[in-house]
Specification:
Blueprint (H helix, E strand, L loop, with lengths): L1 H7 L1 H5 L1 H11 L2 H4 L4 E3 L2 E6 L2 E4 L8 E3 L12 E5 L3 E4 L3 E3 L3 E5 L3 E4 L3 E3 L4 E4 L2 E4 L4 E2 L4 E3 L6 E2 L5 E2 L5 E3 L4 E2 L4 E2 L4 E2 L3 E3 L4 E2 L9 E4 L4 E5 L14
Parallel strand pairs: 1-4, 2-5, 3-6, 4-7, 5-8, 6-9, 7-10, 8-11, 9-12, 10-13, 11-14, 12-17, 13-18, 14-19, 17-20, 18-21, 19-22, 21-23
Antiparallel strand pairs: 15-16, 23-24
């Protein structure tokens, strides 16, 4: 039993050196010594800016890069902070094959944020995600167009904008969230959908499409009873 438990959690020991470095680089000593952030196969491209944990500290409460979805390679996570601020409001799990890039923006992740695999997150201005948000695999969130566009009169067009996702939202796989998205709490977003505006909709709505629109209301996911019964 002890050997089996050790084998299941062997990644803690393998990831320890880089996790120690990351924690003591970013966090105050009394937080870092508790090792709240665990990294698994994380490639550190840039480690500037700030990482803040605005929550009671527990060992391993934030796990970046570890494998949650078996159909994706166990290749960890790419982390690049070019001078921005990342705020964790509590527990967080971001799975394998993912990438986080913060370029002088502010990224705020609510308590119990989970992205299962292959998340692409680019924050150049401001991205705020509420509590208990779950993202399926291959989701992308970006508050920038990355390239400047101009009007025919030569004026720059604003190519970035803040993103806010409310509490208790569930995104299925391959959802894309672009600049200026404002999504209320208790919303489900269907696979392959595109979010790109302010959604003035009621709680317990289902969005789908490109761009997404309400296709059903008064629905939710019961995490305690969500197993599909196949006939």
């Amino acid at each position: 039993m002890m050997l089996s438990k050790f084998w299941r959690n062997r990644w803690y020991l393998i990831s320890l050196p880089k996790s120690l470095y990351f924690n003591f680089h970013y966090l105050p000593f009394m937080q870092a010594i508790k090792l709240p952030i665990l990294l698994w196969k994380v490639e550190l491209i840039r480690i500037k800016g700030d990482v803040i944990i605005d929550s009671p500290i527990k060992t391993g409460m934030i796990r970046l890069g570890y494998r949650m979805v078996g159909i994706y390679k166990d290749d960890g996570l790419i982390f690049a902070n070019y001078g921005g601020t990342i705020i964790f409001k509590g527990e967080c799990k971001i799975g394998n094959s993912s990438a986080i890039c913060v370029n002088k923006g502010e990224l705020k992740l609510g308590n119990n944020f989970i992205a299962t695999a292959s998340l692409r997150l680019a924050c150049y201005k401001k991205i705020e995600i509420g509590n208990n948000v779950l993202l399926g695999w291959d989701c992308m969130i970006s508050d920038t167009d990355f390239h400047q566009m101009k009007s025919t009169t030569g004026q720059n067009i604003k190519c970035y904008g803040s993103i806010r996702i409310g509490d208790n939202c569930w995104f299925a796989s391959r959802v894309t969230v672009l600049k200026n998205t404002l999504l209320p709490s208790y919303v489900i977003v269907a696979s392959n959908s595109l979010l790109n505006k302010v959604y003035d909709i009621q709680h317990n709505s289902l969005l789908a499409g490109q761009p997404a629109k309400v296709v059903k209301q008064n629905v939710y996911r019961d995490y305690k009873d969500d197993a599909i019964q196949y006939s």
